[in-house]
Structures are given as C-alpha cells and as structure tokens.
Amino acid sequence: MRSPMFRRVVLKISGEALAGTKGYGIDPGVLDTLARQVKSARELGVDVAIVVGAGNIWRGRVGQEMGMDRATADYMGMLATVINALALQDVIEKYGVDTRVLSAIEMRQVAELFIRRRAIRHLEKGRVVIFAGGTGNPYFSTDTTAALRAAEIEAEVILMGKTGTDGVYDSDPRKNPDARKYREITYLEVLNQGLQVMDSTAISLCMDNGIPIVVFDMLGPDNIVRVVLGEDVGQTYIR
Ligand code: UDP
Q1: Interface pTM, i.e. ipTM
Q2: Which end of the chain is more exposed for a tag (fewer CB within 10 A), N or C?
Q3: From the CB of residue 192, how many other CB atoms can be counted at a distance below 10 Å?
Q4: What per-residue confidence (pLDDT) applies to 1?
Q5: Model-level pTM?
Q6: Is residue 74 included in any domain, yes or no?
Q7: Structural domain tally of the chain?
Q8: How far is the CA of 185 from the centre of ligand 1 (A)?
Q9: Which CDD domains match (predicted)?
C-alpha cells in the first residue's frame, strides 16, 4: 500500500470551489469529485477534517457593501457554511464514509456543536469531520478557521484546495503570462509580498504554530490523494 505523507490533514474547500463553473450554488459534479477523493484519502488511513467556506452563497463583504452591519453580514456567511457542510456530508456519506458536521454556532437539529476533544475523538474513530460555522466569530474568515482548527486538532498540514489555479504565483497568471510559480515559499514572503493565497490572519496563525500549507488544484484528477501521498501535482508549499 502507498504510504501517505500526512497522518492528519485539514482540507480547506472554498465556497467558490463548490460552485464549479456556475459561479453560484453547489455543483453536484464538484461535490462528487471531492467526496470520491476524501474516501480514497480515508482508505489510506489519513484523518481528514474539512473546513468549508461560503463564497458560493454569501460573503460578509457583500453585505457590508450593501450597507449592512459587518457582524450581521458575517453571521450570514457563517450560516451559509453550514449549508455547504451539509451538502458535503450528504455526498461523502453516499460513498460510505462516516462523517460528522461540527458547527461553531450551536444548531442542535442539524449539527453537533464544535468541541475540540469531540472532534479529535471522531477523527480517531475514522470519521471525516466537517467544520461548519467558521470560527463562530465575525471579522474572521474560513481560511482563519482552517488555521485555527488545524492547530487545535494537531493536523500536520492544511491542504488549500484551489480551483482555477494550481499554486502560488508572483503575480496573477490570468493577467500576466510571465507570472512565475513558487514551488516553496515562506509565510513571511507571502505576507510581505501581499500574495492572495489566504488572508494575513490565517497565514500568521499558521506561521506562529508551524503548520505548513499546500496550495494545489483541487479538481485535478486525484489531486487530493496525490498531494496526501506527496506526489508532484505542481503544488506550492508554504512553510
Ligand atoms: N465568516 C466569519 N467568521 C468566520 C468565518 C467566516 O464571519 O470565522 C463569514 C465571513 O463573512 C465570510 C463568510 O463567512 O465572508 C464566508 O466565508 P469565506 O469568505 O471565508 O468563504 P470562502 O472564501 O472560503 O468561500
């Protein structure tokens, strides 16, 4: 059996990725691709925790631009992550993998409340844990949630699954044909150069806790599993 490079991972899935080419809502094809790969990662014995975003439904910034109170708009974003988490849970369980949705905001009928020790226990039992509700606090992002949860559950890495890009570039490759991709970059270089990989709070948290980040194209064939195995899919390592 091929041996994975990581024992426990946090997979960050942005809302945008779930929308696929539609740009809004949830693309069943994307869900299916993700679920199949999560199952394969589990079969390698890797503990998989997922942090899901909500950009496909709502972002706090949009509400703010409409004149809404920032905190209210952010709570709407956190609630939207729960919708995405339930969609992921449904499809992953169709593949026969046990999952638990743990929400940072209490929502008894639909999800368990996030309790760190409970999350770890689920992982130890081989369940895929899906973290919903972000950090439970406005003014944060789901990238920061990924950094926070990774530290809390002692994950070895954050797998930043991207769509539309396959790593970290020195400029936007869609605008600059000469953009250069980094294969390795430090947290500080990302911060100092203002590279749009994760927000600065999330990067800082990873830096302070020594959690490496792998940025890769999540929808490439078997890429999640290949990254877990340490294969080269053109990913960038931030560490
Ligand atoms: N959000 C928040 N606190 C958190 C996580 C998320 O307030 O801890 C809100 C914030 O408004 C954000 C929205 O939820 O815009 C959706 O999350 P995010 O933008 O990170 O989703 P992604 O870009 O990954 O799809």
Answers
A1: 0.98
A2: N
A3: 9
A4: 67
A5: 0.97
A6: yes
A7: 1
A8: 25
A9: AAK_UMPK-PyrH-Ec
